[in-house]
Structures are given as structure tokens and as C-alpha cells.
Specification:
This protein is an alpha/beta fold. It has a single domain (15-209, 252-278, 305-326), classed as NAD(P)-binding Rossmann-like Domain (Rossmann fold, 3-Layer(aba) Sandwich). Helix content is 41%, strand content 15%. It has helices at residues 24-35, 51-56, 77-80, 103-128, 165-171, 176-196, 219-224, 226-229, 232-245, 253-265, 282-293, 315-319, 328-341; strands at 15-19, 39-44, 63-67, 85-88, 134-140, 156-157, 200-205, 207-209, 248-252, 271-275, 278-280, 311-312. It is globular and about 55 Å long.
Length: 348
Amino acid sequence: MEEEGSERGRGSPTTYCVTGATGFIGSSLVNLLLQNGYNVHATLRHPAKSLKLLSLWTNTDRLQLFKADLREEGSFDEAVKGCDGVFHVAASMTFNVDQQDNIEEYVQTNVINPEIKGTINVLKSCMKSRSVKRVVLTSTISTLTGKDANGKRKRFVDESCQTFVDQVWKNKPSGWVYALSKRLSEDAAFKFAYENGIDIVSVITSTVSGPFLTSNVPSSVQVLMAPITRDPNFLRIVSTVNERIGSVAVVHTKDICRAHIFLMEHTKGKGRYLCCVGSYTLSELTERLSQHCDVKLERCVDEKQNWMRSEVGNKKLKDLGFEFEHGIDDIIKDTVSSCVQCGFISLT
């Protein structure tokens, strides 16, 4: 799949490696790459637990599967060999941890350090392969904030609005472990890549929702559906996002995958790119969900009086030439349809 302005992907067949191929974004990315004629090396930590996904991909000879573990250095050597690029999607999805006597030390040792090590392990494997031209790293909007160092709301949020690590350690908001591990592993990846001459770009995902291929309902889908399900854990997460960023930024499953491929193939891509089609306050999202579900949803969080929203921007990505295909109505419609189909929600 080539977007206008793309400068890669011409000539001989292109081969890409996707780490974390059984996750939400990873599985959808593998599917889209195969649909568009690419050769794919997909890494799986537990192939035996991925029979549903594997059954979707058995009718092609353009896919090779590799067992790999982020905790093992060299585990990705064979998977990236001969690849033109690597999509590093695999990551820990630890949002919070049970209270520990030394919780900071526990999180640093058991979550953040392994996440950083795993990312560096993938980059080391890329260094060994002379064919890899670029690495696209999947990041998250959890690494951003809509407030300045003094807690004042920003009107616009973009790639430069990174979270303040010391404040996350201090305040430990909902999802704080995931936010820290992604922020610090992304920083480590760019530092290692710069020091070793690796071309790297990151995609900052907003709340990704829409159709999914995984057996379990993805966390980001559950976040968007929280006003319907009233799940207290995911209501807490979406409320925290709304408060931290100043709105909830969203993107369709297909568009986030298209953005990954676009940034892999556009040689002018540099640095970090925030990928969202729009952003909405939690009250606005609840109203939209009510319209699509044809049910009256109660407001799940009271936004403070004189509460100021922030707009989450996609200017850098659009300036490079990327065009979104799906807006908020598509996102909600496709998400609700997928959740009803798998039995996660019922609207009757």
C-alpha cells in the first residue's frame, strides 16, 4: 500500500517484520500488510495460544512466523533477517500494579527495565541485519500530557507535550505504569538508534478502536466502550485520559495501521508522529455513543465547572501527506458492531 508522497516500497517485493503480531494493532497490521501484497515476518511469543489468528493467515505463502521473546537478546535475529523494515509493536500492557512495599523499585525492576531491554534487543537485531532500512516504533498518547509543569491546561496538544516523568512517579495516576514504561522505553530507543545510526520513527497512538482480530477485547476498545459497560477500571482510565490530556483523542484501527505503513515508507518521516483523527471530551463521546447505540447513557464523569478542553493535533502527520479515511462516526459504529458481534456488549 503506497500513499501519495511515499518514497519506499518500489521495485522488488518488500518484506517487513512485525513484532507482537498477536496483539490488537500487531494483528491488524499484519492483516493489512498481507492484503496489500507485502511479505511479512510476524513474531509471536506463544504461537500455540494464537490459533484463531493463525487460521486467518494460513492461505498465503507471503507470511513467515517466528517465535520470539523480548526478554531474550538475539531472539529477533532470524525474524528481522532479510527484512526491509521492522514495525516494533510488541509491548507490555501493564497499567497498574498491586501495592508493594517498595512500589517504585518493583515497577522499575519488573516492568520498565524489561520494557527498555526488550526494545533495545529488537534494535540490536536490526543492527545485525544489513537489510533493515527503518524501524517504526509504536508509542502511545499515554506519553503525552495536556498540562504544563505547573498544571495549567494547554489549548493544543502535540508531539512535544511529553509527560513529566517525575510527576508520574509522584502522583501515580490511573495507568501510570504503562505510561512510564512506554515513555522511558521510547526515550531509550531513540537514544540507542541515534548512537548506532538506526533510522527510527515512532507512531504515537491515540485511543485505537474499531474492528479487532484478537480473541480478547482490546484494552483501548474497552476504554472507548466504558460509558456503555460502566466497567469501573476502564471508566477510571478514560476519565484520567480526559483529565490529563483535556479530551479523548481517537483513531480507527485501519487508519493507525495505514499510518504505520505510511511512516515506514516515507523517507522524509522523522521523529515522533501523533496519530488521531480528532479529540472529544468524555461528555461529547458519551453523547455520540448514545446516538449510535440508540440508548440514553448517563454521564459517567462530571467535568469540572469552567473545565477547558484541549485539542489534540495531527498536523505533523497530515503535513507529511497522510490522509485519514475514518472519522468518529465510523470508529464508534465499527467498534459497537465488533463488540456486539463477539458478545462483549448487548444493546437489547
